[in-house]
Design a protein that fits this description.
By secondary structure, the protein is mainly β. Helix content is about 5%, strand content about 40%.
Length: about 120
């Protein structure tokens, strides 16, 4: 019978998949975290860290929530700075994006569905 619950640490478990803790890429034997429904990431970004290339052709909807720090999200034609705990942004499929950690930042990212 598969496990009915799981506990862990986002920093430790996320290291295996660049911060992603739930999604299609988790080993199938980990039935609670392996899913095609969504992906969840715990992102720890030091000040100055930038995604140099833009993500293009995205086929998922994305939610980004600021836990701490200051984080700039670059979207076509606009940049949004998340600076208050709980600030968030949501964007849909086909929206290109990039980002920059203005100050040390922790963010939670949720994408759906989880696609290979």
């Amino acid at each position: 019978m598969p496990a009915e619950w799981h506990t862990g640490n986002a920093n430790d478990e996320g290291d295996q998949h660049r911060g992603w803790m739930l999604g299609h890429f988790i080993e199938p034997s980990d039935s609670l975290r392996a899913t095609g429904d969504l992906e969840v990431k715990w992102g720890v970004h030091p000040a100055g860290q930038t995604r140099p290339e833009w993500t293009a052709g995205e086929k998922r909807t994305t939610l980004l929530i600021l836990v701490s720090g200051t984080f700039r999200l670059d979207l076509p034609g606009e940049s949004v700075t998340l600076q208050r705990q709980g600030d968030y942004a949501v964007w849909g499929p086909g929206t290109d994006h990039s980002w920059h950690a203005v100050a040390d930042a922790v963010v939670v990212t949720v994408r759906w569905p989880s696609l290979a």
